[in-house]
Design a protein that fits this description.
Layout (H helix, E strand, L loop, with lengths): L18 H16 L3 H8 L3 E10 L5 E12 L5 E7 L5 H18 L4 E7 L8 H14 L9 E5 L5 H15 L23 H16 L8 E5 L3 H12 L3 E7 L2 E4 L6 H10 L11 E3 L1 H5 L5 E4 L18 E3 L8 H9 L3 E3 L1 H4 L2 H15 L5 H26 L3 H20 L4
Parallel strand pairs: 3-4, 3-5, 6-7, 6-10, 10-11, 11-12
Antiparallel strand pairs: 1-2, 2-4, 7-8, 8-9
Helix pairs in contact: 1-3, 1-14, 3-14, 4-5, 6-7, 6-12, 6-13, 12-13, 13-14
Bound molecules: nicotinamide-adenine-dinucleotide (NAD).
């Protein structure tokens, strides 16, 4: 494996699974398959640019706190950098670097002309007021002003951020450059050039990939029993769309724990309940309370981790009962756990395919903005579905042809396209 100069900012615990090392092992496996030249692998293993900025923020109490904000730009060989902004206490530079690398392969796999990036601030957004979050987001954006832009690097929402933060970023960037620049972010509100269908896009993409994988096994969504970890942007959209398609969503969870119903949860009612309880599903009537760990090991057909990375690992993989594990989150299944599941015949749908609906609709938002044309939701969903199904078919075809896992097939396709573009562009100077 390539060693890099990226060091964790904190002292890792013995059980620490480094997300950047995980991302590099996926790259290494794809590189071996592609017989990539060692020099090319060195280039692809390192982010092109790593930016860490200090964000001084005045709390509502008057106290001044200084936060660290990261933006990692992995590779822009195919187009501008693209990737979400995460607000979560577990954010580290290594995690952001890993997620930036995944974005590069994801965009290449989906055939969209972007490179990979990611940003993040290690905060729990629930511990900050709306005013404090606005001050943090605006200062972070202004510190990054020379590193982002509609043809340079285009942020989007990720864990802990939403259309609201994207609007603050767009406004801060626009005020600084002196004119409105809607294309600097995607996932923004409709009122300032957001796309219809963006909010549900990652969940919709997940539903489409699960539907295709079930069809491969001769099954349909109707009556399929699903458990979903995470009930945020991705988890709750996936739950609603699967429920509407006739699947039985037996369990969902948020950070404080989960709920289970043998006969299936009423997802619209659960959505309304969570909205009134700061996103928490715990205490939802007519459902049993379960822990997040119990959710992962419930009897079900499809398990969708849609929260954090490293949720299915050596400790609990033997207890996972699902026939399909769909990675709606980034990196929720470790490499070893993934191999153990595949050895048991479980279909593991890899993150760079399963959760690509969000970046696909971000791309469609950018295209609509650049052409000053805005499409109806039906068209956005159709265009997204075409790209997702096409990528799914390519991954399945490649996996069958090369007798490899879906993950390795997806990475091989993504990495291979970026490597080919690098070769065609040549090395400057
Ligand atoms: P979000 O902040 O909207 O929601 C996260 C959800 O996970 C919340 O319900 C939260 O309570 C829950 N959660 C947090 N910690 C948990 C824990 N320890 N156990 C169980 N649940 C926990 O975030 P999101 O945008 O839905 O993103 C979820 C995942 O999907 C992330 O891995 C993200 O990188 C990935 N993703 C998001 C998008 C997008 O468009 N938002 C696109 C691609 C991938």
């Amino acid at each position: 494996m390539i060693s890099t100069s990226l060091q964790p900012l904190e002292t890792p615990s013995p059980a620490f699974i480094c997300p950047f090392d995980q991302a590099c092992s996926y790259l290494d496996a794809a590189a071996r398959e592609l017989k990539l030249d060692q020099g090319l692998l060195e280039i692809l293993s390192r982010p092109r640019k790593v930016v860490t900025v200090s964000i001084p923020v005045k709390r509502d109490s008057g106290e001044i706190q200084v936060l660290a904000g990261h933006r990692v730009q992995h590779c822009d060989v195919l187009g501008p950098y693209k990737g979400g902004i995460r607000y979560h206490p577990a954010v580290t530079l290594r995690e952001v670097s890993a997620l930036a690398m995944l974005m590069t392969w994801k965009c290449a796999l989906l055939g969209i002309p972007y490179g990979g990036a990611k940003g993040g601030i290690a905060i729990d957004p629930k511990s900050y007021s709306v005013g404090e979050l606005e001050r943090i987001t605006r200062r972070y954006t202004s510190e990054l002003i020379d590193n982002i832009g509609p043809s340079v690097d285009i942020p989007a929402p990720d864990m802990g951020t939403s259309a609201r933060e994207m609007a603050w970023m767009m406004d801060t960037y626009s005020v600084n450059v002196g004119h409105a620049v809607p294309g600097v972010v995607t996932g923004k509100p409709l009122s300032i050039g957001g796309s219809r269908g963006r909010e549900m896009a990652t969940g919709r993409g997940t539903m489409i990939i699960v539907r295709e994988a079930l069809a491969e096994l001769g099954q349909s969504l109707e009556g399929t029993r699903v458990a979903i970890q995470g009930f945020g942007n991705v988890g709750n959209a996936a739950a609603l769309l699967l429920h509407q398609a006739g699947a039985i969503v037996v369990a969902v969870s948020s950070s404080a724990g989960g709920v289970y119903s043998e006969v299936g949860l009423d997802i619209p009612a659960l959505k309304a309940y969570a909205a009134k309880n700061r996103g928490s599903v715990v205490g939802f009537p007519q459902a049993l309370t379960i822990s997040n760990d119990e959710l992962l090991t419930l009897p079900c057909d499809v398990l969708i981790p849609a929260a954090l990375e490293n949720q299915i690992l050596e400790d609990n993989v033997d207890r996972v009962q699902a026939k399909i594990v769909a990675e709606a989150a980034n990196g929720p299944v470790t490499l070893e756990a993934s191999q153990a599941l595949e050895a048991r015949g479980v279909t593991v749908l890899p993150d760079i395919l399963t959760n690509a609906g969000g970046v696909v609709v971000s791309y469609l938002e950018w295209v609509q903005g650049l052409s000053y044309l805005f499409w109806d939701e039906e068209r956005v969903n159709r265009e997204m579905e075409n790209l997702m199904v096409q990528a799914y078919k390519q991954v399945i075809h490649h996996a069958k042809k090369r007798q490899m896992s879906l993950r390795l097939a997806a990475y091989t396709l993504g990495v291979g396209r970026v490597a080919q573009a690098l070769l065609d562009r040549g090395l400057y100077p």
